[in-house]
Amino acid sequence: MKILLAVAGILAGWWVARRLGRSPASAPPRAATSLFFDAFLVGALSARLAYIVRWWDEYTAAPWSMLTVGDGGFVWWVGAPMAIAFIAWRARRARSTGIAAGAGVTAALCVWLMLSGVHGLLLRSAPPLPELTLVDVSGQPVSLRDHVGAPVVVNLWATWCPPCRREMPAFHAAQARHPEVTFLMVNQGESAADAEAFLRNSGLHFPHVLLDSSSSTMQALNTRALPTTAMFDHDGRLLDIHLGEMTRAGLEGKLQRYFPSHSRSTTTSKESK
Fold first, then answer.
1. CB under 8 Å to 181, separation ≥6 — which residues?
2. Cα 107 vs. chain centroid, distance in angstroms?
3. pLDDT tens for residues 19-65?
4. Which phi and psi angles does 237 have, rounded to 5°?
5. What's the DSSP call for residue 157?
6. Helices 95-124, 2-20: inter-axial angle, 10-degree rounding
7. If I label 14, which of 39, 40, 87, 121 is the partner at 20 to 30 A Cα–Cα?
8. CA distance 187 to 185
9. What is the CA radius of gyration of the chain?
10. What pLDDT is stored for residue 25 in this prediction?
11. Do you find a cis peptide bond into 227, omega within 30 degrees of 0?
12. Which residues pair with 98 in a beta bridge?
């Protein structure tokens, strides 16, 4: 979804740059749109590098994850000024072209922020933590709603899914850093033996491994992709849903964004030690 929001912003920015670039005082429209796209790339790269610096320890633990831009790791308030500065530098002798491209960047950012806000409001009105009863690896029934009262992260995974396997260490590390957040690792369509064998061989341990033989959780969350990660507040309200692989930095960023009080308390206790 966030990719679609970004694409919508880019298209809006391109349209604005092209329209303003058609004015009589401007250079050919392609000059403005070309400068807009160049500035967008500069801004996106700057925003990505700023995010990598922000979560340097997490990325150095898994260097390949620096290339996984699907984790949503961009600092827009760094990227936007860099894009505008690039336009000012490139268009210092073509003021009208710079104005058109700058207006395009501004429009793209405004549309993205607006749609992101609307998306956040829609998530808040989405169905709460599903009222599903699954089983744990010992065969005991477990209701998802039993965990309401604390922040909950639901991860849908399967052993045959390569991105699921790659992101598991990130969840294992996050679980240790955020003990007050409940991580429900919901396996989709596999047996307890398969799930336990994978976790044991990978050296991973999760207190809450659940089995969903009919993939009913995927249906309840309206997703058809693995892995999928959904975050719920202490009242069971949906805060965020992420389709695809999560990196250590991307997961930690979301946890600190949506559960800041828990993140601060965990960090403080670690520092005191």
1. 150, 151, 152, 153, 174, 175, 255, 259, 262
2. 23
3. 888 765 555 668 899 999 999 999 999 999 999 999 999 898 888 88
4. -85, 140
5. E
6. 150
7. 121
8. 6
9. 22
10. 54
11. yes
12. none
Where is pLDDT greater, at 91 or 126?
91
Q: What's 207's DSSP letter?
A: S
Q: Supply 111's token pair.
A: 């549309």
Question: Which comes out higher in pLDDT, residue 231 or 261?
Answer: 231
Both structure tokens of 59: 């990325």
Beta bridge partners of 186: 156, 210
Report the candidate in 257, 240, 255, 248 with the shortest Cα–Cα distance to residue 116. Answer: 240
* CA atoms of 87 and 236, how far apart (whole Å): 45
* Torsion (CA) 160, 161, 166, 172 in degrees, nearest 10: -80
Q: How many CB atoms lie within 10 A of CB 257?
A: 12
Q: For residue 8, what are its two tokens?
A: 């919508």
| Spatial contact of 232 and 220, defined as CB atoms under 8 Å apart | no
Q: In what order do the strands lie in the sheet with 141-143?
A: 141-143, 133-136, 209-212, 182-188, 152-157, 228-232, 238-243
Q: Which of 257, 270, 264 is nearest to 116 (CA)?
A: 257
232-249 burial code (b ≥16 CB/10 A, e <16): bbbebbbbbbbbbbbbbb
- What CA–CA distance (Å, rounded) separates 211 from 139? 9
Task: Tell me if 67 sits within 8 A of 82, measured CB to CB.
Answer: no
**pLDDT one-digit tens code per residue, 166-175:** 999 999 999 9
